[in-house]
Amino acid sequence: MKIVKHSGVIVDFNRSKLKESLLKSGATPAVVDDVLQLIEKEVYEGISTKHIYKMAFGLLKKASNSHAAQYNLREAIRLLGPTGFFFEKFIARLFASEHYETKVNLNLQGKCVSHEVDVLVKNNNVITMVECKFHVGRDAVTDVKVPMYILSRFNDLKERQHEIFSRGESISKCWIITNNRFSTDAVDFAECSGINLLSWDHPTTNNLKNRIDNHRLYPITCLTTLSLSEKEKLLILDVILVQDIIDDRTYLEKIGLSPKRTKNVMKEASALCRF
C-alpha cells in the first residue's frame, strides 16, 4: 500500500518502521500491537503519514498520556517556535544536563565584526559556540551554506579573547544544532572543517532525540494535558522543561490551573520523566 509523506513523496506503508516508532514511546509491546491493528484497519491507498501519525498519537493517548507525549517529541520541539528563542534555551538546558556551564544570546566582538551567538557552553575549560538552526516546517533541511557561513563567524570570533564566563577566554570549538536534518553536503563540509553537528537523527547514535530520551529532558510542549496557550504561558515564565514543573508545581498555579488539572498534569509529567 502506498502512503504520502509530508514532503509529498509516495512510499510503501512500512509496518515495521511504524512499530519501531511506537515502541520508542515507551508503550508495551501489547499496547503497540493493539495500536497497529487498529491503524491497519483504517489505512487506505494514498493516506498521508500525517494522518497515520494523528491516529497513532490519539490511540497512544487513550492508553497513556505519557506515552503519547514521548511519541509527540518531534512535534513538541517544533512547538518551541516559531522564532527559535525557546529552542536555544532548550539546547542550553540540554548541555547543562551534561555538566556544561551555559550562556544564551551573547554579543561578542570578533577580529573584524561583532556577532550574536545563540549559546555558549564551557566544560573542562573548553568554550564552545553553539549555533541553533530552528525550522518550523518539518521537511526543511539545513544545507551546506549554513556551516560555511558559521565557520566564517567562528574563525572571526576565535581570533580574540572574550569575557564570557570569566575574563580572557577563547572560543575553541563550534557546534551547529537543528531540530530537523542536515543535507549530505552540510555534513561533509562540517566534518572536513571540524564543526560538530547535532540534529534529530545525526549522528546515528547520540543524536538530538537520543540525548533527550537519555536525560529525560523533555520540553514542556510535550505534555498532552496542557493546552497550547498554557504551554506558551509556561515558556514565557521560563519553564522550558517538564522537569521544571516537577521541581516546582506552583508554576501551574501561576497560569491558572485548578488543583484537579494540576494533579493530572503532574501525573503525566512524573510518568514521562520516570520521576
Features:
single chain, 275 residues, alpha/beta, Trna Endonuclease, Chain: A, domain 1, DNA polymerase, domain 1, 3 domains, 5-stranded mixed beta sheet, 3-stranded mixed beta sheet, 13 helices, 10 strands
Describe this structure in words.
- This protein has 275 residues and is α/β, with parallel strands linked by helices.
- The protein folds into three domains: 2-63, no CATH class; 85-215, Trna Endonuclease, Chain: A, domain 1 (3-Layer(aba) Sandwich), CATH 3.40.1350; 219-273, Orthogonal Bundle (DNA polymerase, domain 1).
- It is 47% helix and 18% strand.
- The protein contains 13 helices and ten strands.
- The chain has helices at residues 15-23, 29-42, 49-63, 65-71, 73-78, 85-97, 145-157, 184-193, 208-215, 228-236, 242-247, 250-254, 259-273, and strands spanning 2-4, 10-12, 47-48, 101-109, 114-123, 126-133, 141-142, 171-178, 181-182, 196-198.
- The strands form three sheets. The chain has a five-stranded mixed sheet, with helices on both faces. The protein has a three-stranded mixed sheet with strand order 2-1-3.
- The longest helix has 15 residues, at 49-63.
